[in-house]
Design goal:
single chain, 103 residues, mainly alpha, 0% strand, rod-shaped
Length: 103
C-alpha cells in the first residue's frame, strides 16, 4: 500500500509540475501579447498624433500667412492714403511760425 501511495503522490507531483509549467507558459504568452498590443497601440497613437499635429500645423501656417497678408495690405493702404493726402506746406509753415512766435 505504501508503494501505491508513493506512486499516487509522485503522479500528483508530476501533474502539479506540468500545471506549473503550463501556468508559466501561459504567463509568458500573455506578457508577449500584452507587449505586442502595447507596441501596436503606441504605433497607432503616434500615427494619429502626427496626423493631427500636421493638420493643426498646416492650419496654423495658413492662418499666419493670412494674417500676414492682411497686415501687409492694411499697411500698404495706409501708406497709399498718407501719400495721397495733399500737403499744404504754406499753411503748416505759417502755423509753426505763429506758434513759435508766441512762445
Amino acid at each position: 500500500m505504501a508503494d501505491t501511495e508513493i506512486s499516487i503522490i509522485s503522479h500528483l507531483l508530476e501533474v502539479e509540475s506540468e500545471a506549473s509549467e503550463l501556468v508559466k507558459d501561459a504567463q509568458a504568452e500573455a506578457n508577449r501579447r500584452l507587449s505586442e498590443a502595447r507596441a501596436k497601440a503606441d504605433s497607432d497613437f503616434k500615427v494619429q498624433y502626427e496626423k493631427i499635429q500636421s493638420k493643426y500645423e498646416a492650419d496654423y501656417n495658413k492662418k499666419i500667412q493670412s494674417l500676414s497678408e492682411n497686415h501687409d495690405r492694411i499697411i500698404r493702404e495706409y501708406k497709399e492714403s498718407a501719400e495721397a493726402v495733399e500737403q499744404d506746406k504754406e499753411s503748416f509753415n505759417a502755423f509753426l511760425k505763429k506758434v513759435l512766435d508766441e512762445a
